[in-house]
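Appendix B, example 12.
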Amino acid sequence: MPRDEKEKMNQAATDFSLADEERLQIENPRLKNLYNYLSNAAINSYSDPLLLSNAVLSKSDLPLDALDNYLEEKEYEPISFLFSLKKLLLYFAKSIGWLVIFLAQSLAHKVSRQKFNPDPKKPLTLIDIYLTPEQIVQKGDLTDRFFPGLEKKLTSKGISYAYTPKLSGANNPLMYYKMFCLLKDLKRPVLSSFQLLNLSDYFKMFGFILAYPFRVLRKIRRLISSPEDKLIRFFLWDTMDHVTMKNYARQLFGRQISKMDVPALKCISWYENQPQDKNFYKGLRSTHKNVQIYGAQLYLWPATLLNLHADEREINFDLIPDHILVNGTYYLNKDSSLKFEIGPSMRYFRLFQTTVDVKGKTSLLVLMPFFEYEIDKILQMIDEAQLSIELFVKFHPATDKNKYAHRMKGKMKIVDDDIYALFNHVGCVIGKSTGALVEATSLGIPVINIETGLGVSHSYLPKFGKGIIWENASNGAEIVKWTKTFSDLTTTKSDLIHSIAEKHKEMFFCEPTDEKIDEIFGLCKPDS
């Protein structure tokens, strides 16, 4: 590394006292302004319980093209009558179709005779996570990949618990029947909405379908002149055809749970601050007076995902967890009145069991993002770099990797191995829009974060360590430059890189010890 470049190392990249104070925050002023505007719009809307189900007001599902135009201060096309009519017709068709399938799934559940009966003498702990029927059937059991080890701990302590799943994936009622039969045979504690929702709830759901679009239209009419008004109007119209009733169904489910005859309810929830989360928490608090909700953000995320920022202005609507658990100090919001706590990084337990030595290793690991246009751009940059070293290319699970087989040139190789197995064989990781880059730097592996210049850039990495253990690259020449620089630094500055890696681990993770899990979820208390 040239001497003048060494002297340019930014203070924020090496000052460990600044690292202790660094926190996740929205850097782009226009994105910050949009967050505040959406916050105001939500607060002015949430007195209407139907609008709790709207994704835009939750700062989620924002159409990317329109968002990019706003950030670049470009004009966007006005909404036509035909566009509006199409969205409304699609809304009714999709929503009624979803309700019909939901009823068929409910019938499948009843035929399976799967049921969970809580112990009326014990407090009930709810585990609120995503589950996929196909995976349960294929694996022959329910596997909790969000809170690994939690169920075993609850069982060992004699705590009454049940999964209250957010079911995703295929909607085939036959698959649901197979899943519920399997769960029944295995005696798995699963409390589904199909068990608790009654005829009155189904009528409410149908009423929601009819009333919801008119509530959104009323909101749209109140958005008049500012650029943000026009943008939100477009967002609301563009997402009008989304099936929002499934969010409302979670509130009805939560209400029924709230009526259960148990001394107390504790909900350990995988918290993404989505409309279905808000609705569920609202429902849980509707009747029962002893409810504690732990919103677990025990994952890595970038500041540009607006919905993941818990909005303290929503607390008066009963939409915010009592405890918000974050993965490390970097995510603690000291300016908020909400209760943020550092929770155990249960999904990242392997990070604390792994040591890596990158000295002398020249191979690169390329972690591809989800979007095809970004994959194409990264492959173009790698072609420009004309690297002669070995490159392992790992695609997103949802990507058809065979589609890119013909683009593997030279020593490029598509791999399916676990990333921790791959970490042991590489000297640098290249990627975009993935928390795995933070896992790499926390193990002392240098990272090149790709900037494609296309759309919102979701960066997971902090300022601390920039230019030493990680750096951005926007073309092939910069990839070549930083692979060489990092190769030199791992030899000449190995102690500094190790220290920065340890600090990254401290900023972004918390070791999931038994003691930490017991403490943070209140499992060491009697009657927990």
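The mean pLDDT is 93. The chain has 20 helices and 14 strands.
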